[in-house]
Amino acid sequence: MSNSFLPFVFGGPWETGYNTKMPYLVFTQSDEGSIDFEKLQRHALQFFDSRVDVLESGSREVHVGLRCPLRGMDLGLQVHVRKRKFVERRIILDAEARGQVSGMGELAEACDYVWEVEPQQDSKGALWFCAILASVGLGPIMPPDCSTLLGVRAVRERFKAEEGYRDKRCVQSGVTPKSDS
């Protein structure tokens, strides 16, 4: 599917014109698409060594701040809540096939609502935030390129693999990474 079609599929501010800055989608099983902020903040701290602060909140959108000192993240994000659209079914199934993630499309289809996450800067931090959201909403994540559907574990594995690569580079360059001990 051509990315030029995608801005018209998704709701929110991306529907007006050819905006190539696509949001991350986090599918959620929550009632009416509501975000349980207490649970979000608890999961961020307990499972992601992160802090999520609600900076502004409206009826269908929220502006949050994400801080994760261990990963060097400090950014703002906009989250828009909306119903999942029927036309997204094809995109979900295509992403599931491309990513070879059997069952994730079915999980996304079981979710009636979507949280659109638009990073204000660092997209890697946005993916980390989406994993925190997904741990609360119990649905998969679709990155802006619609290349796959990701679960929380897949996001954590991506970050862990990247850290391993970075640690190897540090060792090769003579810089020793900090250990947890």
Describe the structure.
This protein is of the alpha+beta class. The protein has one domain. The chain is built from six helices and six strands; from the N terminus they run H-E-H-E-E-E-H-H-E-H-E-H. It has helices at residues 6-9, 37-48, 88-99, 104-109, 123-137, 152-173; strands at residues 24-28, 51-57, 61-68, 73-83, 113-119, 141-142. It has a six-stranded antiparallel β-sheet, with helices on one face. Helix 2 packs across helix 5 and helix 5 runs antiparallel to helix 6. The longest helix has 22 residues, at 152-173. It is globular. Residues 1-20 and 165-181 have low confidence and may be disordered.
Mean pLDDT: 77
**Helix count, per DSSP?**
6
User: What general outline do the C-alpha atoms trace?
Assistant: globular
Major sheet details? 6 strands, antiparallel
Q: Could you tell me the strand content as a percent range? A: 15-25%
In short:
The chain is built from 6 helices and 6 strands, in the order H-E-H-E-E-E-H-H-E-H-E-H. With 181 residues, it is α+β, with helices and mostly antiparallel strands.
Task: Break the fold down into its secondary structure elements and pairings.
Blueprint (H helix, E strand, L loop, with lengths): L5 H4 L14 E5 L8 H12 L2 E7 L3 E8 L4 E11 L4 H12 L4 H6 L3 E7 L3 H15 L3 E2 L9 H22 L8
Antiparallel strand pairs: 1-5, 1-6, 2-3, 3-4, 4-5
Can you give keywords for this protein?
single chain, 181 residues, alpha+beta, six-stranded antiparallel beta sheet, 6 strands, disordered N terminus, disordered C terminus
